Amino acid sequence: MNDGKQTAARAVILFGHGARDPAWAGPMRRIREAMLAEDPATPVELAFLELMTPTLAETVDSVVSAGAERIAVVPIFLAQGGHLKRDLPEMLEAVRGAHPGCEISLAPAAGEADGVIAAMAAYARACLD
Length: 129
What we know:
By secondary structure, the protein is α/β, with parallel strands linked by helices. It contains four helices and four strands; from the N terminus they run E-H-E-H-E-H-E-H. The protein is 41% helix and 17% strand. Helix 1 (26-38) links the parallel strand 1 (10-16) and strand 2 (44-48). Helix 2 (56-65) packs parallel to helix 3. Keywords: Lyase, Metal-binding.
């Protein structure tokens, strides 16, 4: 419903650790594809902490260049460990400084969401069958 207010262009960045094996990012790509199938108008991109590209800064630059004014960074991690407590806040500070006109929010680690915990518990139970 359009109430006459213009909505800022938005994007989602799925942020993962990264690995030497490119196949490691397969589940993140599947999450991206599922999100785009549900809402093709909202860009969803991947970014990685290390060992893989693109970096968070590169992905933020890309979505901002494409017009994003609001970005949600969603860590695809099981929990808030050292990388999310120390490394990611420093990265976010740098990208926010590089793009002061863009609102960049940080979601909690995906693995801490109630729905994700319930899905993992259901999966673990199903492994008994």
